[in-house]
Amino acid sequence: MENQGREALRHQHRPENIARRLQQKPRPPKLADFVLGAIDGCVTTFAIVSGAFGAGFPSVVVIIMGFSNLLADGFSMAVSNYESVHTQLEHARAARRTEERHIDLVPEGEREEIRQIFAAKGFSDDTLEEVVATICSDRRLWVDTMLAEEYGISSVPAKPVVSGLVTFLAFVLIGAFPLLPYLLQAGPVDAKFYLSCALAAVTFFAIGLCKGWVNGNPLLRAGARTLLLGGSAAMLAFLVGFLLRGLVPVS
C-alpha cells in the first residue's frame, strides 16, 4: 500500500503533471462554508426540536417551527456569510489600490520592502538582488507579493455569492435531518425525539468525517471532534428548553 502511494505521488510530481496542475487557477475553498452551514443548521433545528420536546409541544408545532426557522435562519446565515466574504474582498481590493499607489509614488520604498521581506526568508547578496529585480520587473507580481507578505491576503479570489449559496444549501439540507422523524405520522413523541437525537449525532459525526477526509486527518478523530463540538451546542439547546419548561408551562 505504501509503495502504491509513493508511486502515485511520483506520478503526480512528474514535470508535465506539475506544469498542468500549476496552470489551473486555484479555487476558493468551499469546505469551510459547507461546515459552517451544516453544523449551524443541524444545531438550529435540533434546538427547535429539543425546546419543543421540553415544552411538550405536539409534532405539528415542531414541523412548522422547524422548517420555518430552517429556511429563515439559513437565508440569514447565507447573507451574513456573503457579507463577510464580500467585506474581505473589498479589503483585498482596497489593499491592492494602496499598493498600486505606493509603487507609483515611492517605488524605491516598495522595492526595499520586497528586499527586506526576502532577506528575512534567508536570501542575501546577489541572489537577494536577483529576486528583488525579478519580482519588481512584473508589476502584478510585485503587488501580489506585497498583498501576500504584508497583508496576508490570498491570491485566490473570494466569491461571496458562491460562499453564501454553499452555506444556505448546507444549512437547509443538513439542518433538515433532525426534523425528519417528525414527518412520520405514527409513533410517540418521545420516540421521535430520541430518533432526532440519533440523527443529529450521526450528522455531526459525518460532517467531521468529511472534514477529515478532505484535509487528510484521522477520520475517527475528526468525526469525534465535530460530534463533541456540535453535540455540546445541541446539549446546550436541550438544557435551555428543559429549563424554560418550568418557567413557561404549557397547558
What does this structure look like?
Keywords: Membrane, Transmembrane, Transmembrane helix. With 251 residues, this protein is an all-alpha fold. The protein has one domain. The chain is 81% helix and 0% strand. The protein has helices at 2-12, 15-23, 31-55, 59-105, 107-120, 125-136, 139-151, 160-175, 189-215, 219-247. The longest helix has 47 residues, at 59-105. The chain is elongated, with a radius of gyration of 26 Å. The termini are far apart.
Write the layout of secondary structure elements.
Elements: H1 2-12, H2 15-23, H3 31-55, H4 59-105, H5 107-120, H6 125-136, H7 139-151, H8 160-175, H9 189-215, H10 219-247
Distance between the termini: 64 Å
Order of helices and strands: HHHHHHHHHH
Enumerate how many helices there are, as a single number.
10
Sheet with the most strands?
none
The total beta strand count reads 0
Radius of gyration, in angstroms, nearest whole number: 26 Å
| Beta strand % | under 5%
Average predicted confidence as pLDDT: 84
Task: Return the structural class.
Answer: mainly alpha
Number of domains: 1
Low-confidence stretches: none
Helix content: over 70%
Described by the principal axes of the CA atoms, the overall outline is elongated
Please describe the structure with a list of short key phrases separated by commas or semicolons.
251 residues, mainly alpha, 10 helices, 81% helix, 0% strand, manganese ion transmembrane transporter activity, Ccc1_fam, membrane, transmembrane helix, transmembrane
